[in-house]
C-alpha cells in the first residue's frame, strides 16, 4: 500500500525542495515509522536519485538525506547504501555521497553497518575511500584536551576489516588508496594489530 501511495504521489520524481519538506514532515510523525515502512520510503524517495547522480547532490538533496537519516539511517543504509555498494558500475559521485553521509549524517551504529556492508562485497579501489571515511569517523573529532573522541569498532568487525585488507593486498598492491587505508588502520588501531 505504501509503495502504491508513493507511486501515486510521484515521490521518486518530486522536486527536491518538496522532498526536503516531506522528510521534515516524516520526522514529526508519531509513532515513528516501522522499519519496513522506512525502508520502502528510502527506496521510493532516494534510490533512483542516488543511482542517477552524475554530479554532486544539491544542497536540497543533502538536506533531505540528513533529515531522513537523523531518524531512519538503518533502513536508508540497508536500501540505498547497499545498492550503491552492490553496483560495481556506480560512479565517483555515489562513492563521494556515501563518504559524506558517513562523515556527517549517520549515527555510529549505521557507520558500522556501512563498513560491514562494504566488507560483504569484493573490495575495490572505488570502495576504499568509504572505508577510509569510516576510520576517520571512528577516530572522531578532537576534544578540548587534545584527545580524540573515538567510536570503537566491535572486535569482530575490526578483525573482518583486517582479514579483508590482508586478502585484498595482492589485488590492490599498486593502489595509493589501499596504502593510505592500511597506514590509517595501523596508526589508529596499533594496539589491536598483532
TrEMBL record:
| Gene3D superfamilies on file | 1.25.40.480
GO cellular component assignments:
Fanconi anaemia nuclear complex
Fanconi Anaemia group E protein C-terminal domain residues are 1-193
GO biological process terms on file:
interstrand cross-link repair
Q: Which Pfam families match?
A: FA_FANCE
PANTHER family (UniProt xref): FANCONI ANEMIA GROUP E PROTEIN
The protein here is known as FANCE protein
Organism, scientific name? Psilopogon haemacephalus (coppersmith barbet)
Provide the taxonomic classification: Eukaryota, Metazoa, Chordata, Craniata, Vertebrata
